[in-house]
Amino acid sequence: MKKFATPSAIAITLYIFGIAAMEGRLAAQRLEGRILQDAPLFLLPDSKREPLVIMEAGVRVHIIRVEGAWINVTVEGSRWGDRTGYVEATFVQIFRVAPDRTPAAVATPLPAPAQPRETVPPATRETVVQTPKPPNTRPQPVTVAQTPVAAASGSVGVKFKDVKIRGYVTEMRSPTDFDIEDYRITKQDNFALDFENATPDVSFQLQDIRVGVELEIKGLLNEATGELKAKAIKVDLEQFRSMKQTAFVSVAPEGIQLLDGSWAGELKADGQVIRVTPATRVLFKPTKREQQLAEHRKQPESEAENDDVFEPLRSLDQVKVGMAMTYEGKRDRQSGKILADRVEFSTNDLEEGEARLWKSLRATVKPAQGLRPGELKIDHAGKYRLLPDDEVQKYVAAIGERLIPAYLREMPLDDPRRIPFQFHVVVDDSFNAFATPNGIVVVHSGALELLENEAQLAAVLGHEIAHATHEHTWRQQQYHKKTRVGIALAGVVADAYGFRSLTDLTTLVNASIVNGHQRQLENQSDRIGLEYMVAAGYDPRQAPAVWKLVAKNQGVSSTNFFWSSHDNEPTRRSYLMNELKNNYRDLDFDSLRTNADEFARMKTAVKRATSQKRKLKVS
Prior knowledge:
This protein is of the alpha+beta class. It has four domains: 7-126, SH3 Domains (SH3 type barrels, Roll); 157-240, no CATH class; 247-349, no CATH class; 353-610, no CATH class. It is built from 14 helices and 28 strands. The strands form six sheets. Strands 15, 16, 17, 18, 19, 20, 21 and 22 form an eight-stranded mixed sheet that branches. Strand 23 and strand 24 (375-378) form a beta hairpin. Helix 8 crosses helix 12 (542-554) and helix 10 runs antiparallel to helix 11.
């Protein structure tokens, strides 16, 4: 029987002859190529090797020869000079340089089936970026000095400025065109990708940029359009490592079930979605008091020594509101959910040290007397002039009471774990609020004058309430306590021997430990604050709007890693925007309130009270 060539056989034959013909023509013609999308350059034609560099889309290469599904090229612009290696043909568009030096496109060889590539540790990877140039010139890396602002923008008179922002990606069009808050990020031709906390165990490529990834962007901002041309993007790879966080159960848990001895499902907790799989260890842990009563243990507590006190969670009925929940795992880059390796539940007792802290922050209120304003005094914290308007004070207190989680409101008055919340408005023009561990929430009058509606005030109050309910002051004091004490002692010794620079270094390291943890707690307060807003019936979209208002009226504050315990305004706003997308996308926002009219009336009262000429000092 006569056999005919199948279409696939014909295609393979044409492919082989096409490659051979092209290889034959290369010696007689000069060919160059353009990288169609971000592509790795390998030393040998083997995609399982570690790339020499990552070439970005648009980079021009000089073609040496075509070898099957691979093209041998030379690329300029690397910090190590010209690099020669192999790139898969599917990533390259080839141009023939004609005698008149005009480029003509050449059909790119039929791409070979894509081979799986291993991820590359970021510490060993380099990104090459070039400005596309005509094939008759050798491409050169572009510097900022070679790109005048007016020329780069294509318009004259537009105001540009160098900026650095840090925030979370809120919208994605492509890895080189995305939004952070109100900034539209695109890349300059001399774009560079850099990393913080890079280790071989965590990899990241440009294509890994997703909604929710935190980035630092440096570049030129077009103030008229909000477009930020990135010269450099820095990624802190710490965000992709395993995390450990403690929260408190505010509603009865649901969403996971026990099947064949293993838990599985998704649990809403800590303002996030925690994904539990059969591989997740879900445990119940007795408190210190329960351990002592049961076993009279006296040795120092450590997870390794006391792991036997953990027991598998048998039923969700064991978990009560107010319990502590500690979870460990990594954040899924696609969904933003936490992929839990371990979840622990335990009763939350008020520890002796924490009880002493509460008692040390006693509040005393002196009512106004004639022209003398009322005064709030908090032991060990300071004195504050109360806003002289009882209606405003009651209004703010009522909102605060609605935001307190139900399980705390329903606790018996004599329960030592019950936080005795109180709310006060003080006269201060700055935008600020704070909460003490025992629930004294103080709001500056300047915050009320800046905000636009009641839901925004609820966002501020909810954030501060979360600091108290989640014991942030106490947890901050205990965090790496032994390490910080050791560092402080080392600083004292260094200072005693005259090594002042070492003393400064130990202070710096100590501050970075504290502030790094504090920023985690600030993010948790933002997440929990959103939960409290929704439970009280407020529109949580007003939470990120707060930070847009602050930035608009006061500018964007700088954030120093070592000395600042708060992220700046764009970072906090973009973080909240991502929390809304990840955890509240199905919320019926139309059923929630902002209550702008009533707030406007209170805002007028605040302005009237603060404009009075009574400037008497509080003694």
